[in-house]
Structures are given as C-alpha cells and as structure tokens.
Amino acid sequence: MAVTLREAIKIAEQNKYAPRINSITGATGTFFPPDYDDEYFFSGVEIPAPDDI
C-alpha cells in the first residue's frame, strides 16, 4: 500500500493518541554503516516536505 505524504500525515494525526506498537513481525535486517561505501550513502534522492502541511 502506498500513500502520499499528505495521506500519511493525516493518518498520523488521526492516530496520534493511539496505543504504541510494542512489536513488529516480519522480516527485519540490520544496517551497519561501515558495510556501505560513500557512493551508496549519497545515492539517495532528497524529497523536501511541503510547507503547507
């Protein structure tokens, strides 16, 4: 399921007082920065958040 930033903020606002998640199921992994080179770190794309949300 994909949601837009605005939809995600709306969902977060609606659930901000909901009980917290205690556990997460499914596959998980680790991220250890020394295992990755600079090219990997700088390969992302910055997505600015709109000012009007």
Helix content: 25-40%
Q: Which runs of at least 5 residues are low in confidence (pLDDT < 50)?
A: none
The largest sheet is: none
- Residue-averaged pLDDT, rounded? 81
- Give the class from helix and strand content and strand pairing: mainly alpha
| Secondary-structure element order, N to C | HH
Please report the distance between the alpha carbons of the first and last residues: 21 Å
Question: Radius of gyration in whole Å, from Cα?
Answer: 16 Å
Task: Please tally the β strands and state the result.
Answer: 0
Q: What's the total helix number?
A: 2
- Name the shape in a single word: flat
Strand content: under 5%
Descriptive overview:
By secondary structure, this protein is mostly helical. 26% of the residues lie in helices and 0% in strands. The mean pLDDT is 81.
Notable features of this structure?
single chain; mainly alpha; flat
How would you summarize what this structure contains?
26% of the residues lie in helices and 0% in strands.
Layout of SSEs?
Elements lengths: L4 H10 L23 H4 L12
